[in-house]
From TrEMBL:
SUPFAM superfamilies listed in its UniProt record: Spermadhesin, CUB domain
Keywords: Disulfide bond, Repeat
Lineage, uppermost ranks: Eukaryota, Metazoa, Ecdysozoa, Arthropoda, Hexapoda
PROSITE patterns attached to this UniProt entry: CUB (PS01180)
Organism: Acanthoscelides obtectus (Bean weevil)
Domain CUB, residue spans: 1-67, 73-182
InterPro entries: CUB_dom, Sperma_CUB_dom_sf
Pfam family membership, one: CUB
CDD domains: CUB (cd00041)
Protein name: CUB domain-containing protein
Length: 189
C-alpha cells in the first residue's frame, strides 16, 4: 500500500455517509488495506484517476459486513498486519453484547498480537476480552483479560480468535490491538 501522500494520481476514497462526510481512508496501490469502519449505515466511495480518465482499467474488489451490534463489532480479518479496535474506541462502549473477530494470516506465517491500549472498566464477569491462540495442530489456548489486567503480547502458530464482551457498566475507552504475520522460520522472542 502506498503512503496516502503518494496517492496523487489514482486513488479510492471512502467517506462516512456522504461526499462531504469524514474521510475514513484514502488508498492506492495493490496491497490490501486495513478494514474501514463507518460511524453510520452508509459510506461514499469516490474513485479518481488522473492517469486513466475513463477508469476502464482500474479494478477494485470491495466487500462489506453490516452489524446491529455497533461499529466494528467482529468479523474475519485477513492480511499480513493490521489494527483491531473495540467498538467505538476510544469512547466507552456501553452495550451488552459480545463481538468476535478471527485474525488469519497467510499460510507459512505465525500471528503476533500486541496490545497497544487497554482500558476497560466494570466487573470481569461482564466486561472482558478473551484471546484464543490456535496452534497448527488444532490446540487452542484461551486467555481472559479482565479490566484490571495489564496485557502485552500474544503469539499463535496459526490464527487468533478475539471475543469482546461488554456491559452497560463499561466506562473505559476500550482497546486497540496490532497484529502482524511473521514467517514461521523466523524465531519469536
Amino acid at each position: 500500500m502506498k503512503n496516502v501522500n503518494q496517492c496523487s494520481n489514482d486513488a479510492l476514497e471512502i467517506r462516512d455517509g456522504s461526499p462531504t462526510g469524514t474521510l475514513l481512508t484514502k488508498v492506492c496501490g495493490y496491497a490490501i488495506p486495513d478494514p474501514v469502519f463507518s460511524h453510520t449505515n452508509k459510506v461514499f466511495i469516490h474513485i479518481y484517476s488522473k492517469t486513466q480518465p475513463h477508469l476502464d482499467r482500474m479494478r477494485y474488489d470491495i466487500s462489506y459486513t453490516s452489524t446491529d451490534k455497533g461499529r466494528g463489532c467482529g468479523g474475519t480479518l485477513y492480511g499480513t498486519r493490521g489494527r483491531v479496535y473495540s467498538p467505538m474506541y476510544p469512547h466507552p462502549f456501553r452495550n451488552e453484547t459480545t463481538c468476535t473477530w478471527i485474525i488469519r494470516v497467510p499460510v507459512g506465517h505465525r500471528t503476533v498480537l500486541k496490545i497497544m491500549a487497554y482500558d476497560l472498566e466494570g466487573p470481569c464477569d461482564k466486561t472482558y476480552l478473551n484471546i484464543v491462540t490456535h496452534s497448527s495442530t488444532g490446540k487452542a489456548t484461551s486467555s481472559t483479560l479482565c479490566p484490571s489486567d495489564d496485557p502485552d503480547v500474544f503469539k499463535s502458530e496459526s490464527y487468533i480468535t478475539l471475543s469482546y464482551t461488554s456491559s452497560i457498566h463499561n466506562d473505559g475507552k476500550g482497546w486497540e490491538l496490532f497484529y502482524q504475520a511473521v514467517p514461521k522460520d523466523v524465531a519469536l522472542v
